[in-house]
Amino acid sequence: MPISGRKRYMVVTTGRTGSTFLCATLGSAGANFGMTVPKDWDPNTGDIEHEDVKKAGILLGEAHRISPTLPGNYVTRVIWRAYQKWGWQALDRALSQAEYVKGSVLMVQPAVYYGYTPSIILNYRRLETQIASQLVRSKYETADFLTGNYIRVMRNGLAAVRIFGGCVVSFEEMQDPAENGWINALAGVTGLDAGRMSAFRDGALKPHEGEPPMGTLCVEAERLWQEAEAMRGLVFLPVRQAQRAVRKRAERFGPAEIRAKAS
Predict the structure, then answer these.
(1) What residues make up the domain containing 254?
(2) Domain count, the chain
(3) Exposure of 17 by Cβ count < 10 A (0-12 exposed, 13-18 middle, 19+ buried)?
């Protein structure tokens, strides 16, 4: 069912960060993900991800793999534009049905172009523990590939939080039953009730085995992680440039005109 308003909350993740638990916590306080938020889930599957958001992530990711910006080669550009168009259309469908979405960091700029006002919730963990979790589940992904993806998501996610507003939530703080800073930050960003989210956390949190210590695999990834750690518990407001850009986009084009121009 279509929803009114142009505000959207976007959970972006580096993977294996407890994002399903995070979204279920938001859902317990009334966050609309355009789908039923389960009370229990398989932590290996990454639930609470709208089907059209999944499609958008795959299509936008493929376009980004081909080229991070408009390709110069004509044939490549035609293919790239097709993936971008299909990805944008899938995201548009999702954002018309859900106020909250969990997916790729690549969905932020299309959402702004469509006239939505995004707040970013960056969900992350330290690279080394994330890789330890991912490598044992993957047939093909290497530590090099996972490191590159981690850096891309963290760089873009941290920039998006600081530009469009939002907060960061780490895997480690969600696993600590005495830690409430992340819940207070979520409440500050979304306006959802912190008490309801805390009550859900207290009832749903399951014991987690700590990972064995690992040395630093990538200096840049470590730097980005430390930057995110310094942002824990804080609520970031959008910068004026972002506010102006979103306002002008919404004022300049009606929804139908925006979608026609994007296609």
Answers:
(1) 7-50+99-262
(2) 1
(3) buried
